Amino acid sequence: MNLWYFRPMRQPLFIIFFILFSSLKINAQVSGKFYSIKRVSDGDTVVIQDESDNQYKIRFIGIDAPESRNVGNRKQVQVFGSEAKTHLKKLLFNKKIRLEFDVQKIDRYGRTLAYVYLENGVFLNQYLLAKGYARIATFPPNIKYVEDFRKSEEKARRNKLGMWLYY
Fold first, then answer.
1. Which residues, listed in sequence order, are joined to residue 42 by a DSSP beta bridge?
2. pLDDT digits over 93-139, tens only?
3. Is 10 a catalytic residue?
């Protein structure tokens, strides 16, 4: 049997294994341990730093906080944006976070997508919804906690918490 016939199959297999290995490497870099907060970018985005001083921008999965700053013509400051960012800064002051991932780990802007937990176990994504500092914004395939998030937001709306005081 002539092996040249099977050669084209090797390259696609190599590409598949490379993609799988790359995603595992990303997962290993930012999961299962606690990370220091370098800065809070917005009410739903932080920058973390690992022990090697590598930095990663983390976007909280399933939520959207009001914008706290203008970003070109794309995004404008929104009502309750600075309050959401300030509240997250206070929550994370001198704290570390643990990350949990869903199906998609990186968004189109290169940010790592994660569910975020404090060392004491507080699930920040859900907490921010429950206190009215964010609204639900789920995008498949990352829908692991969509029902819990929906219930938390509904409760915050009913009780006019956080930004829901204005609506």
1. 45
2. 999 999 999 999 999 999 999 999 999 999 999 999 999 999 999 99
3. no
| Active-site residue flag, 59 | yes
User: Catalytic site residue 67?
Assistant: yes
Burial of residue 93 (CB within 10 Å: 0-12, 13-18, 19+) is exposed
Q: Please write the tens of the pLDDT for every residue from 60-69.
A: 999 999 986 6
- Which of 98, 100, 111, 150 is an active site residue? 111
Selecting among 67, 108, 153, 154, the annotated active-site residue is 67
pTM given for the model: 0.78
